Amino acid sequence: MKKKMVSTIGILGLCTSLAFPVYAADMVKQETHHHEYSISGFISHGELQKKLQQLEKTSNGVVQVEVVGQSHKGLDIYTAKVGTGDKVILLQSEIHGNEKTGTVALLNLLKTLSTNSKEAKKIREEVTIVFMPMMNPDASEADKRRNSMTWDEAVRDFPQLASAKPSWNYLDRGISQSYNYGENPGFDVNRDFNPNLNYVPEAQDFPGASNKPGWFITPESQTSRDVYKALKEEYGNVDVFVDLHHQGIYYVDGTSDEVTLSLSAQFVPDPNTPEGAKYAQYADNYNYDFSRQLNVAAYNELQSYGNSKFKNISLYSQGLDLPGTALGSYALNGSGTVLFEVKGQTQTMGQKQKGQLVKSVERGLEAIIKGVADGSVETLNPEDYEKIPLTSNRPS
Questions:
Q1: Closest C-alpha among 387, 385, 365 to residue 290
Q2: Which residues contact 23 (CB under 8 A, 6 or more apart)?
Q3: Burial class, 327, CB count within 10 angstroms (exposed 0-12 / middle 13-18 / buried 19+)
Q4: 4, pLDDT greater than 50
Q5: Res. 32: pLDDT tops 60
Q6: Does residue 238 register a pLDDT over 70?
């Protein structure tokens, strides 16, 4: 396994298998979660490290693992790459540390795609898939939404922010989702992205707002951004970006069925419309129809399982303007984008229904990957996206 900080070039070259570095968690004080639900069935950072090492070793070179950055507390952030195709798919999990099923699903899928099966080999010939599991490890270890960085530490890293007010996505008071942020402040990393991938923080852009770009002030968002930029430089584009999340308990609109998984292709208004005019500089890159096709592929696959809870799929809130999210920023930079939001979070459900939720993510991702690999996703009608039922916050 390679251990090195990511740069904007060459992060995904040939991998040299080296011994794992000392587990960084051994050197930092770890926070613990503050709710009564067990999360022992999910994957810790140390277990992630071991599983990636094992997959790289047993795959005989098919899986290439790299350390691409470190969290604020110094925990390694990894990518694992499979495939040699020209079409690039980037899959990311646990940008919020209490949203854990995606990491399990990614490791299961990585194992499947590294086998010598005829189907796995064919997929690897057509696409390059980069997995970024548990990209916010500090939050994952403490089972919380936000990272563990203080505003003072952000100003230390960016002295030009000394006169700025703390960003709107920074929390340093009260109890949120069973976690005391007054004791351990942090940033919502998924509001720290910017469509300008070369943006440097400026004091006049703070504190910002939900409908304004973020700043790349957290090491976690910087790492994701650097991986994305390096892929674009090497391959010309990141064709697909999928971000794996959790949500609360919602219902399929018009029913009393609890949503198993919400999907979405829409995170900023289309730059080619009057509503999206402020993003006009990204208009030539933005491909909403392709994003919709990717979502339809996942939806159709999950609907194919008959009368099961895999059918309880809905559209996440639409009409959003969230350029500070990874999905919004990467969509404006030319990626087809898909949001997965499975039911519940660890502070409300622990590991309840873990198996079903993980499987729903796996099946949806498999459909997207296969559809991109064989080109069938491009034959889907993007307008079918509009037929997917919406998410409701109450049963009918």
A1: 385
A2: 45, 46, 49
A3: buried
A4: no
A5: no
A6: yes
What is the band of 193 on the pLDDT scale with cuts at 50, 70, 90? very high
* Amino acid letter, residue 379: T
- Supply the pTM of this predicted model: 0.90
What amino acid occupies position 291?
A: S
**Mean pLDDT value across residues 83-89:** 98
CB 178 within 8 A of CB 34: yes
Which structure tokens are listed for 353? 């229904």
How many Å apart are CA 141 and CA 23, to the nearest integer? 13
Task: For residue 225, give Cα distances in angstroms to 135, 381, 382.
Answer: 11, 31, 28
Q: How confident is the model at residue 10 (pLDDT cuts 50, 70, 90)?
A: very low
Residue 292 tokens read as 């919709």
Q: Hey, what are 20's tokens?
A: 């794992």
User: Cβ contacts of residue 221 below 8 Å, gap of 6+?
Assistant: 189, 192, 193, 214, 326
Please state which CATH number belongs to domain 2-143+215-392: 3.40.630.10
| CB-CB contact of 232 with 369 (8 Å) | no
Q: How is residue 19 annotated by DSSP?
A: P
